[in-house]
Structure formats: structure tokens, C-alpha cells
Specification:
This protein is of the alpha/beta class. It is built from six helices and eleven strands. It has one domain. Strands 1-2-3-5-7-8-9-11-10 form a nine-stranded mixed sheet, with helices on one face. A two-stranded parallel sheet has the order 4-6.
């Protein structure tokens, strides 16, 4: 269930392949505390296909030194209704204390997934999404920059996203859209195979 490097270094990684049922969550947290007695965890990799945000918040709150977070996908709705009264307070606590700078998402199904990650990781500087479902790339970027402007986010400065069969024409289209909408200034955009990197100052 839990694999972790116990070396006392910045490379300490915790890999979670499954999650316990709600009634075992306290025991699960005790196991994490045992790991922290040996080494700090700087990287969290969750292999489970869908992670409910309330569980993610509780885990992040136990790992205050996290620098990077890797998820397959995020779910804002937990059918078990395990999102208790503590949830909102936990979210605020995580917003103010976590140090996560790099986030990797295998896929998103709704722009709200990105908004939640931005709120959960307010010091995030780098966001990589491998697959964007149910929206086109232009809408995805417009929504992200609208959110950045609305929230006054000064930390996020690099986006990476995958476009299947990307070519130089997609770069030209994105540049035109960014410039015409004045989404950002002083930026660079490049393609590496199917990955597009957008960085700004």
C-alpha cells in the first residue's frame, strides 16, 4: 500500500497505490507518521485513478515539506460523503501552509479540477497536465489565466500540457490567441514532441 524511500534527502518520495476505506483512515495516517519519524517526504505520487479532494487534503496536511505532487485525476465529489465538517478548515489550513511547487496531473475532466489544485497549492510554480478532456486548449488557457488574474496568483509561471500530434501551427495559433486576448506578456512558448511549454515572467 505504501512505498517510500527512507533516505534523509530531498529525494524522499511516498508512493500511494491504494487508499484505505474511511473507517481505516486514522490508521493510515498513523502509518504516514511512522514514515515521517524516519524521513521527511518531499514528493507524493498517488497511483489511484481518482482521488477525492477531502482525502488528499488530509494527507497533504500530514506532509508539510512536500515539494511536488503527482496525481492521475482529481474528484471534487465523494459519494461516500466522508467530507466532514473539518473539511473546510483543513482546506484553509493546507492553503496557508503547504509548500508544493510542482504538480503533475495525468488528466483533467473539468477546469474546476485545475482551480481546485490552484487553491490547494497556492505556491505552485509549475503545472503539468498530460491529458485535457472535454475542453479545447485555447479555452483551457483562457480559463487558467482568468483565474490567475482573479486570485492575484504571483507564483504559477510555467504550464506544460500535451497536445496529441502537436505541430508548429498550434504554437502559432496559441501565440495569436494569447496576444489578442492580452492574457500574459513577456512569455515564451515552445513544443517538445507533443508537449507544449508556456512560461512567463
Amino acid at each position: 500500500m505504501i512505498n517510500s524511500s527512507v533516505q534523509l534527502s530531498k529525494s524522499s518520495r511516498l508512493i500511494l497505490s491504494i487508499f484505505p476505506p474511511d473507517e481505516s483512515l486514522d490508521l493510515f495516517m498513523i502509518l504516514i507518521n511512522h514514515i515521517l519519524a524516519v524521513a521527511q517526504i518531499y514528493h507524493l505520487d498517488i497511483l489511484k485513478r481518482k482521488v477525492f479532494i477531502n482525502i488528499l487534503i488530509k494527507i497533504i496536511n500530514r506532509l508539510p515539506e512536500l515539494n511536488s505532487l503527482k496525481l492521475h485525476s482529481l474528484s471534487l465529489y465523494d459519494p461516500s460523503n466522508s467530507y466532514d465538517e473539518e473539511g473546510d478548515d483543513s482546506f484553509c489550513s493546507t492553503e496557508n501552509t503547504n509548500k508544493i511547487a510542482k504538480v503533475y496531473l495525468e488528466e483533467i475532466n473539468d477546469i474546476k479540477d485545475v482551480y481546485s489544485i490552484m487553491a490547494l497549492c497556492p505556491y505552485m510554480t509549475y503545472l503539468k497536465v498530460n491529458r485535457i478532456n472535454n475542453m479545447n486548449i485555447k479555452s483551457y488557457l483562457r480559463n487558467i489565466f482568468k483565474k490567475i488574474k482573479h486570485d492575484g496568483n504571483e507564483h504559477l509561471r510555467l504550464l506544460c500540457f500535451r497536445v496529441v500530434a502537436a505541430d508548429d501551427n498550434i504554437i502559432i495559433q496559441l501565440e495569436k490567441m494569447i496576444n489578442s486576448k492580452k492574457l500574459i506578456f513577456d512569455y515564451t512558448i515552445k513544443r517538445v514532441c507533443d508537449n507544449i511549454y508556456l512560461q512567463w515572467k
